[in-house]
Amino acid sequence: MKIGVPKEIKTLEFRVGMVPSGVRELVHDGHEVIVETNAGIGIGMTDADYEKAGATVVAKAESVFAEADLIVKVKEPQLIECAMLRPDQVLFTYLHLAADPEQAKALVDSGTTAIAYETVTAEDGSLPLLTPMSEVAGRLSIQAGAYALQKANGGRGVLLGGVPGVAPGKVVIIGGGIAGTNAAEMAIGLGAQVTIIDRSVPKLREIDGIYGGRVRTEYSTKHSIELCVTDADLVVCAV
Hints:
Elements: E1 2-5, H1 20-28, E2 32-36, H2 47-52, E3 56-58, H3 61-67, E4 70-72, H4 79-82, E5 90-93, H5 101-110, E6 113-116, H6 130-149, E7 170-174, H7 178-190, E8 193-198, H8 201-211, E9 215-219, H9 222-230, E10 234-237
Helix pairs in contact: 6-7
């Protein structure tokens, strides 16, 4: 099988994608991997790195779409990329079609078989490809929030961990799932006061057991959300 990796049109904010180690595994298993030039530049991988792993580097995305049987991306395809897809191809990427009807129509019109990472489900009902993204999002939310709270960045000058004599910042996380608990991990690590709001009492019990009282839990109601959010320095919506 020929596997194509075009360069992402949208910029990614963290290290992710088909790195040369993945290319090496695929080539070892008898596949041919075609990579658009500079596809890995955003994560510090050069064309030479991919070629050393056994990939063929091509100059344009059009060449990747024309030659490959399987197109592997990270972000959803743009309309100009949808127009390059064929009925005999498979597209494997995050799609998020509910929020993008134009992309959905373009994919249908292309006739390609499109598989969304976020819908791949394991036997136990978990989402093995979506879960890591939720972990990343949850952890990044605290990092981004702490940065935005700095006075120099337009914030109120709140240090989430506080210092002796100054209380730590208050972080409210709405939703106790994968993203929410990972946000809590980061906030706790910084020394913030953390509250998680969720509508599942069993989930709140689980969180309370895991963190041993280091996290305050609240059952989700309009009243509890209003009280917690208006008193918070940082609010993370993880629903």
